[in-house]
Design goal:
Elements: E1 7-16, E2 29-38, E3 41-47, E4 63-67, E5 74-81, E6 93-101, H1 102-108, E7 110-118, E8 121-135, E9 139-148, E10 161-168, E11 174-179, E12 194-197, H2 198-202, E13 209-216, E14 224-232, H3 233-239, E15 244-247, H4 251-256, E16 265-275, H5 279-284, E17 288-296, H6 320-332, E18 340-346, E19 348-350, E20 355-357, E21 360-361, E22 370-372, H7 373-384, E23 389-390, H8 397-412, E24 418-426, H9 433-443, E25 448-454, H10 461-466, E26 486-490, H11 499-507, H12 510-520
Parallel strand pairs: 17-18, 17-24, 24-25, 25-26
Antiparallel strand pairs: 1-4, 1-8, 2-3, 2-5, 5-6, 7-8, 9-12, 9-16, 10-11, 10-13, 13-14, 15-16, 18-21, 18-22, 19-20, 19-23
């Protein structure tokens, strides 16, 4: 029987006195959390934001993990100096890390340890502080905030303001709970609406003091304080849709200047508490996950009869395509009640007339392309392989549009009843990159995720581009994706890893993507759970 998740835990991370790897400025640190999948294999759980020019970062993004009492959950924290936009950490400087178990963090509540370059080898500089809180509340606080009349801090411009929200810990110290984005050169900024779990924000205690500090962001030095104010979470919640203003006061100016009033005004435009539904809330509340497979049958894979071909069936009857279908499908099928999966091929000449098709049913039955379970997909693939001729070009957009039609029908229902996951298995060559970009931007407004597994040793730059690794993916007209829906994973990274490691990596973003879609449309689960507060 699978281990039961006892509770969810939220981890807060900060560091002190990091090694400085940048010439002429400080490091730009980020923390990544990895979890062991056994046999010295690790999978990424999440990562914090990057903080520019800072050797003592306090990361505002909290990392949530499931805590299993009966499992030893090995964690590895890594601090990196990020110098580019790529999400690949391979070419970033490693500033140090720390290995422990989740049980150690939970039992001590707060761990402070020296950073290590590898286990047992100190980095020589820098410490990491990790604290844990159990999540007992499924509500979130949603805030709209603006400011006006802020002090001008920059010599040649106005100010580049951002806000930090802190709650008061039991020891009286202020703990960062949220940091807004920076708005450049503006003394009357309006920040994007943001949502923070009520537990993170104030430990679900509305009488807890909250401190809000406004800073002017300085890229080269530490940011300058413009002013601050304190209130309680209850005072913010009382705002609802009636805006309330707070004087933003600079402590030193207040002491020095007799007639000093403020350094600007921070206005809470609206504040509400909403249910913060999780992936499990949606799935247990009746959301059906529909899983579709698309397999690349283009000529660049090589002749299936040749052992060099990616479609070659080895003596044990397997290849990378089949291994990927097995490992991912076995996880997803648990969430699909009828276990019927549409499966398609693309890029092959298909019998009887051998015209090229970019979305042919793997079982050659276009009116009923469904396969029974993962086993059914595997059987259909083995059946189709000797009957088609590998050809080209490699077009992704037809199969994306195919699934999008069903997702669009589900979206019209206006409920959180269905979500679609398209798994594309490909050797990495892609011919219709522009049309695929357009299709992905359109699909980002639908209940749909696209997972691309790269098979073989090709250059997967196009796949990484679609994954948004170089920044937000945009259409040809410049329209950005409404939300991130593409996850790319190269199979070669998992050839010698345990079977479950590929599935974990491939499916890591699907829960977040599903929740982000339903939240974007303010859709509650079909059968919402009862509110949990303690």
């Amino acid at each position: 029987m699978a281990a039961q998740c006892v509770t969810k835990v939220e981890l807060s991370v900060s560091c002190n006195n990091l090694i400085d790897k940048d010439v002429g400025s400080k490091s730009d640190p980020l923390c990544v959390l990895l979890q062991s999948t056994g046999e010295d294999k690790w999978v990424e759980v999440d990562r914090t934001e990057k903080i520019k020019n800072c050797q003592d970062p306090e990361f505002s993004k909290k990392i949530r993990v499931d805590y299993y009492f009966e499992k030893v959950q090995k964690l590895k924290f890594g601090i990196y100096d990020i110098d580019n936009k790529s999400t690949d950490l391979g070419d970033d400087d490693f500033l140090g890390g720390f290995e422990c178990t989740l049980g150690q963090v939970v039992s001590s509540k707060k761990l402070i340890r020296p950073l290590e370059l590898k286990k047992g080898k100190p980095a020589g500089k820098g410490t990491i502080t990790i604290s844990a809180e159990e999540i007992k509340d499924n509500r979130a606080i949603v805030l709209d905030v603006e400011a006006r009349g802020l002090d001008k801090k920059d010599l040649f411009g106005k100010s580049d303001p951002f806000l930090e929200f802190f709650k008061q810990a039991d020891d009286g110290k202020w703990q960062l709970v949220h940091r807004t984005e920076v708005i450049k050169n503006n003394l009357n900024p309006t920040w994007k609406q943001f949502s923070v779990s009520l537990q993170t924000f104030c430990n679900s205690d509305l009488n807890k003091p909250i401190k809000v500090t406004c800073y002017d962001k300085d890229e080269d030095t530490s940011s300058d304080i413009i002013g601050e104010f304190t209130c309680t979470a209850a005072q913010l919640v009382e705002v609802k849709d009636h805006a309330v203003e707070f004087d933003c006061v600079h402590p030193e100016k207040k002491q020095k200047k007799k007639n000093y009033k403020n350094s600007g005004v921070v206005k809470i435009r609206s504040c509400k508490i909403v249910a913060d539904y999780s992936f499990l809330d949606y799935v247990m509340g009746g959301c059906q996950i529909n899983f579709t497979v698309g397999i690349d049958f283009t000529g660049s894979n090589g002749d299936p009869k040749s052992p060099d071909s990616l479609h070659y069936l080895s003596p044990n009857g397997l290849n990378q395509y089949l291994s990927a279908i097995w490992s991912v499908g076995q996880v997803v099928q648990d969430y699909d009640t009828d276990k019927l999966f549409p499966a398609f091929g693309f890029g092959a000449q298909v019998p009887p007339d051998f015209k090229v098709s970019h979305e042919f049913a793997l079982n050659f039955n276009p009116s009923n392309p469904y396969c029974q379970g993962v086993q059914g997909i595997v059987e259909a693939y083995r059946f189709a392989l000797p009957q088609v001729k590998l050809y080209g070009p490699t077009n992704f957009s037809p199969i994306i549009h195919h699934v999008a039609r069903f997702a669009a029908q589900a979206a019209q229902q206006g409920t959180a009843a269905q979500y679609f996951v398209l798994l594309i298995l490909t050797d990495g060559e892609i011919t219709d990159l522009d049309q695929t970009r357009q299709a992905i931007v359109a699909c980002s407004k639908l209940p749909m995720s696209i997972i691309i597994v790269g098979v073989g040793e090709a250059d997967f730059k196009a796949m990484e581009f679609l994954d948004g690794d170089g920044g937000v993916l945009k259409s040809l007209t410049g329209e950005p994706v409404a939300r991130d829906i593409v996850q790319f994973v190269p199979y070669r990274d998992f050839v010698s890893a345990p079977k479950e490691a590929l599935a974990q990596s491939v499916l890591a973003e699907v829960p977040t993507q599903l929740v982000s879609y339903f939240k974007m449309l303010n859709l509650a689960p079909v059968q919402p759970p009862k509110p949990v507060t303690q």
